[in-house]
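Continuing the series of single-chain predictions for the mutant panel. This is the parent chain; the variants come on the following pages.
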Amino acid sequence: MNLIDGTSLTCDILHRIAHGEPCSIAKSSLQKMEENALHTPSTILESKRAWLLGEEQTQSENLKKEFILGHCAGVGELLPKEYVRAAMAARINVLASGFTGSRPIAAQKILELINNNDIPDVPSQGSVGAAGDLAPMAHIAAVVCGYIAHPDTFTPLEPTAKECLSLINGVSLSTALGSIAVVRAQKVLDAAIIAASMTMEAIYAQNQCIHKKALTLRGHPECIEIGAQLRALLQDSERVGPQRKPDAFSIRCGPSVMGSTLLAINHTKKIMEQELNGCSDNPLLIDGEWIEAGHFHGTQIALALDHLKIALTQLATLSERRTFRLTHEKLSKDLPSFLVQGTGLNSGFMLAQYTAAALASECKGLTMPASVDSIPTVQHHEDHVSMAPISARHTLEILECLADIVAIELLLAAQALDLRMQTDHLPLPPRIAKIHAQIRDQVQFWSDDQVLHPDIRILGKKVRKGITGTPSPW
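Parent structure:
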């Protein structure tokens, strides 16, 4: 059982909850919420309306319902249920901080929906990530409060005025999507490192680019770590060595580029976990006083994810360039063109590189930083916005492309290694041999043309589940 306490939620835990694991709320958090909620005024929505519209504070029996439903303005395809589960759990963690003026029952009702897997339909578009992810979180809140169709077995929350605000007034969706992206990015990077080592083995690469002392002298810890992983994968290689000529940059600069991607992942993870455990709500009830801050603004998330998008696209173009080299006889050190014998009659893996190139180009288009844009909303009251949910969605789209790009390199590198072993009769390094055998358990060596799509799809799934270790959800 995953415990939510307002302070210790991680990307990995949120990812597990997103994919179906149950969760509970710490008793200490419920107690803090109970004590904090005692000081909540009942007129806070009227105050917000007066601030926005300049009207006198007026009472309305339906104001709470009108407020929630009035923010249900999302459009586009529905978000996957895993994403919505993650957003709901992230919002519970904000409420569990005990500073939002919300009662325990508000968090418990969201929790009930999660653990019963009764997940609301939430459109993917319509949030600017400034006064929170208002539209998507309102679609969740409308079910929690029973203002739209809800499960027959579910007794809706009767919210206080402040709970109506707290359910929607934070960037929990953007943070949840960013957290899922972090977990996925690490999986794809792990696969990319393996693919790079297999390609290095297949083309008789020079190993000075992973020289321990040389990488240490550059001073970037993440590059040093990537170099160590490549050295471990290539240990006992009889093909890769210092006597070879220096390779093209897609090989030689692998530690620098992949190390930079690792740095971006680590940075983004830090930001996501700070945000997951922060009070993304407004106003906050601190020592009996309402404090109006700007904690609903998602700039930190947007900037981190835009950075990650660019780093992942670097990884995509690096892998695609290695795939290209594997298909080119003059660049692969005399492997058959397109990695099958009899090229001229056979296309071999030519179209796999087409696909990798197309996917890499899509990644480039998606790297436009959403955070550089800001369009004023709410009659200039909210005159600067973060666009964090757009950064998050585009990061996830890039990861889908990248997983298949790396899968293509794995497919071609496995073929190239088989061709090498047929001619030089040298063994593979033990760790690469194990991975090569795992690939061959799922896709076979090509002696003639075949349909590419099934093999790419199979290895794409393998990348998404984890290329090594126990498979886990994407």
